[in-house]
Fold D-arabinono-1,4-lactone oxidase.
Amino acid sequence: MPDRSPTALQNWAGNIRFSPSRFEAPATLDEARSVIAAAPRLRVLGSGHSFNTIAASDATMVSLAGIEPEAHIDALTGTVRASGWITYAALSDAVHRAGFALHNMASLPHISIAGSIATGTHGSGDRNGNLATAVAAIEFIGPDGELRTVSRGDEDFPGSVVHLGALGVVHTVTLDLLPGFEMRQYVYDGLAFDQALAHFDELTSSAYSTSLFTAWGASPVFQYWVKQRTADQTHPFPQANWYGAPLADGKRHPVPGVDPEACTVQQGQTGPWHERLPHFKPEFTPSAGDELQSEFLIDRADAPAALEALAGLGERLGSVVQICEVRTMAADDLWLSPAFGRDTVGLHFTWVSDFEAVAPVMSAAEAALEPFSPRPHWGKLFSIPMDEVRSRYPRMGDFEKLRARVDPEGKFGNDFSDAVAGGAANQ
């Protein structure tokens, strides 16, 4: 079994670097179980698409990427049981070929299933829950190396899906599927800021999935992306404009001036769901990690006021933001989901890769959003005090009890998860 000790690792963006005491890459499930049982403390290395220390550890680091991922589709139950480390790109291709669909995907299809679910990552759409809401069952390798499955309906289920890597190593995830469907994607240019705020509900409810992009600045405008299921379209052609924003006359990238070749097909060309729901094609790596990211999730009802508050920082934001994306998602009951208990709007910031320049502007944005009790994305940059973040999750205490029960020695913790769930934050 491969074992490299020690080794230096970094996340996708390269802004987080750490050196675990051991790096283990088991080739089989049995080897993985042995490694996990033997390690005093460990974290799992996924696809690395995080921007804070959520995955970092100076203890044992385990990667399951050397085990051939699997995806078993059950047509009778309409589910797929997949290896946790499989990417959405690989899984969606298998699901599509079987005639099914996932309910949603994130902007990038390159990320792993387990990591996305563990952090409450999402796509968009007023009626679409985040990616974790598709989970029907999740199978963990526990601290003793034994397999433990938690299924929808079990008492522990709502606390086990968005788990920050603190409840075990994910072996498999079972996801609900939909019948396969086709989509069309349209982009509109130059949507005026005041029009977007005045008609926010109409814009976000107009299609299966929508996104609003702005680079901020003194006079911000939005680029409006619409992803429509063909079966839902009542007219053969899209409307010529939305509140004064014309239909784009060519393909667009969310970041102004960037070549759109990496983006999924637009301009109303019909295609399968998995080639339209993400913004980017799997064969491209947008930005190649040359960026930092933050996201703050607020109650949907507060979205126009929150955007107005951010507009007061427009010039400062514009100096360090590559692009900001506004997306919607439905409320859920998963204890650590950023959309727990409220229909939610995500305000996503793709920053330039200069933390010293970004940090004070990020803090200013957090201050502007403070009246709206933002919940930061668990895998992205934020400076909101962890005690304050904890207070915004009504079931945090229940999660702490669950964690103490399934991992009493804290084997799967690190500084980040300990601060979230009863470690450093309570000392």
Observations:
- The first strand starts at residue 3 and ends at 4.
- The chain has a mean pLDDT of 94.
- The CA atoms of residues 217 and 315 lie 4 Å apart.
